[in-house]
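Task card 7
Instruction: Convert sequence to structure tokens.
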Amino acid sequence: MAKKVAKVKSMEEPLWDTANKLRGSVELSEYKHVVLSLIFLKYVTDRFTERYNQRMNDVLFIDLLQQGVLNLFKELGYGIE
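Output:
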């Protein structure tokens, strides 16, 4: 068991060292803004992807989207028959 703890500790040290290098000159107290922004971006991306997949599975939405694209092309003068 002691070997596992030592192994985990040895993996943690390089990760923290790398994180500190990537952080660069940003103060530790300001770094939270960077991290929270990345977490928020991940959350928004996940929700958007989930919603997009739900909408793409909706046959009515796809039909309306295709019809809207066809109407747009007709208005712009691109003939799609």
